[in-house]
Amino acid sequence: MEEIKTELQMIKMSEIQSQEVEWLWYPFIPYGKLTIVQGDPGDGKTTLILNIAAKLSRGEGLDNEMKLSAPMNVIYQSAEDGLADTVKPRLEQAGADCERILVIDEKDKSLSMADERLEEAIVKTKARMLILDPIQAYLGGGMDMNRANEARDMTKKLGALAEKYQCAIVLIGHMNKAAGNKAAYRGINVVNLSRTCPFLHRKNNF
């Protein structure tokens, strides 16, 4: 099958209007963007995110760089932990307002990053934060996240969704098993926040 040639179009940076980034938590989690928190098992990725969700549900911040004016709705999707025996107890322990932590029901159909229900849920709940934990469970269709050409369309669509509703979309990622490689090279082509976020290594703060 002959490949259809795409006409080259160029954009001058002088034609782009600069915009400021609005931060949920500076300099880690912006509104309107995708953020990936990744690390090895036991680094505290889910602990961090559940504690952030709990704080947001009460209208509080983790530190002085997380400023909120009101309680916030958060959508949290977990493909690994049970809602009743793991997720809710951990949220309750963190002091969450569980009325504001919402989950898309997946009993009829598993969710993927390209699922239209994500947008429907953000619109319906007015959530300012959406969490998918872990990324690998929400790829859909056997897609390999390590292949940039397969992942780009899906993450581009998810990024557009974040921008459209100024929602902070957070993806939890596991390191791959490339033995002997440094952590920065075992991820999925994203920034490794476990190296820059002190809360990941200070679990006793929660």
Explain the layout of strands and helices.
Elements: E1 23-25, E2 29-30, E3 34-39, H1 45-57, E4 74-78, H2 83-93, E5 101-102, H3 116-125, E6 129-133, H4 148-165, E7 168-174
Parallel strand pairs: 3-7, 4-5, 4-6, 6-7
Antiparallel strand pairs: 1-2
Characterization of this structure:
The strands form two sheets. The protein has a five-stranded parallel beta sheet with strand order 3-7-6-4-5, with helices on both faces. It is built from four helices and seven strands. The N and C termini lie far apart (57 Å). Helix 4 links the parallel strand 6 (129-133) and strand 7 (168-174). Helix 1 crosses helix 2 (83-93). The protein is an alpha/beta fold and 206 residues long. The chain has a single domain (26-201), classed as P-loop containing nucleotide triphosphate hydrolases (Rossmann fold), CATH 3.40.50.300. The protein is globular and about 55 Å long.
By CATH's scheme, which homologous superfamily applies? P-loop containing nucleotide triphosphate hydrolases
Helical content (DSSP H or I, runs of 4+) = 25-40%
- Based on CA atoms alone, the radius of gyration comes out at 18 Å
Give me the CATH architecture, please. 3-Layer(aba) Sandwich
Mean pLDDT: 83
What amount of the residues lies in strands?
5-15%
Order of helices and strands: EEEHEHEHEHE
Task: Write down the CATH topology.
Answer: Rossmann fold
What gross morphology would you assign? globular
Number of domains: 1
How many helices does DSSP assign? 4
Largest sheet: 5 strands, parallel
In whole angstroms, the N-to-C terminal distance is 57 Å
Can you tell me the residue ranges where pLDDT is under 50 for at least 5 consecutive residues? Answer: 182-206
Coarse structural class: alpha/beta
CATH C-level class is Alpha Beta
